[in-house]
Amino acid sequence: MVEKDSAIVCRKKLTKQEVAKFRSAVTKDYYFQMYYDDLPFWGFLGKVEKDKNDPSEERYYLFKHLHFEILYNKDRVIEINAKADPNAVVDLTEDKEVEVEFMYTVRWKETNIPFENRMEKYSQSSSQPHHLEIHWFSIINSCVTVLLLTGFLATILMRVLKNDFVKYAHDEEAADDQEETGWKYIHGDVFRYPKYKSLFAAALGSGTQLFALALFIFILALVGVFYPYNRGALFTALVVIYALTSGIAGYTASSFYHQLEGSNWVRNLLLTGCLFLIVLIWSLVTSPLLVLGGIAGKNSKAEFQAPVRTTKYPREIPPLPWYRKTIPQMAMAGFLPFSAIYIELYYIFASVWGHRIYTIYSILFIVFIILLIVTAFITVALTYFQLAAEDHEWWWRSFLCGGSTGVFIYGYCLYYYYERSDMSGFMQTSFFFGYMACICYGFFLMLGMIGFRAALFFVRHIYRSIKCE
Questions:
Q1: For the chain, what is the radius of gyration of the CA atoms?
Q2: Which of 142, 262, 289, 327 has CB atoms 3.0–4.6 Å from 370's, for a disulfide?
Q3: CB under 8 Å to 414, separation ≥6 — which residues?
Q4: What is the DSSP letter of 322?
Q5: Residues 6+ apart with CB under 8 A from 383
Q6: d(Cα 141, Cα 131) in Å, to the nearest integer?
Q7: CA torsion angle for 375, 456, 242, 344 (degrees, to 10)?
Q8: Structure pTM?
Q9: pLDDT tens, position by position, 120-163
Q10: What is the pLDDT of residues 402-415, one digit of tens each?
Q11: Among 235, 239, 267, which residue's Cα sits nearest to residue 254?
Q12: How crowded is the C-beta side of 9, counted as CA atoms within 13 Å?
């Protein structure tokens, strides 16, 4: 409530190098971002103008006086705006030392806007018609992708399966010396446990934990717990909920590892905790919950449900064309889910790495559900084609195909960094790509779990529908 008029913040003597850096920042339209009572506000560092004496030349100026206007209702801050004084500038055109006196002015104004509505100003930018049109276009585009994929599965895949069932029923009545081909004849190998089953169970546990984390965050966002401009609350919730959901990772990993007849469950738990962790909270919160969940999973009486018996020796996998290998399959599996979400990715990146505020959590949740559905459907389709080619090593393949969307998102990071952002230098580059690597790796684990679960459900269903010796 104290007004200031041209109060001096500090006096600074800028060196030639600092003048050059500020000039570069002004040229690239750098802006600052500040927070006051969790309210963000922005302003440019300076301006570029034509030289009055020589219009072909440009002069660069640094703002040195900021005017703050703060609106309040009783004892609560409602709104804050900041603008630079266009006349209080420092000339940065030449590389020479400059004395700068930074100042600020504060004006307080009373308003009738209630405290509960102070976020509407920030949500309006996301709710403007042209933004909503693009958001809804993104959802319609994604829904069309889902419908096309669903139609593909319903008409093609189910018809092929029906023909398979008729063919195999006919083969049982025909001569026994007929050559065996197709997915039915690998029934003795399709439920053979995968290689590196401890790592597989750990990845499944971590993916399940991250999926639970995403659901909890969406629930909190949809009920209005997070202010869109209070990023600290969101990041705090991410860390706390990640720590508290560690029991889910421990239970899922140990339970599935136990179903795969694994014996070293302690090593499996350590592997689960190390796949995706935050070191500072790992020893205090994550480890105890991880162990408790692991003990519960180890002692669970669940057994792996395989509708057919696994043979003693594995069946030889026939030679496969290049497009049926793991990498091409991952490329096909990741492209469709990514195409369903890439429009929304721009707004998320602009919010996380830019100055935009993201508030439409309901649309984001719909896109998230679409992502899960498309991932599950495409993984099921590719798993069927893999089994039809008599390749019974589908466990890791389904996980990798489901998680491959995370690789595509990281590829989008490269595009965003070089084409949409103006970041440069070691610090910005390492910060951006380091954080995005962690996030995309989390998506890889979560969507890999979704892909495997969908494929497992599908494989169990089709082998339960046939008669096997």
A1: 29
A2: 142
A3: none
A4: G
A5: 394, 397, 398, 401, 455, 458, 459
A6: 15
A7: 10
A8: 0.72
A9: 777 665 444 455 666 677 777 777 777 777 777 777 777 777 77
A10: 999 999 999 999 99
A11: 267
A12: 11
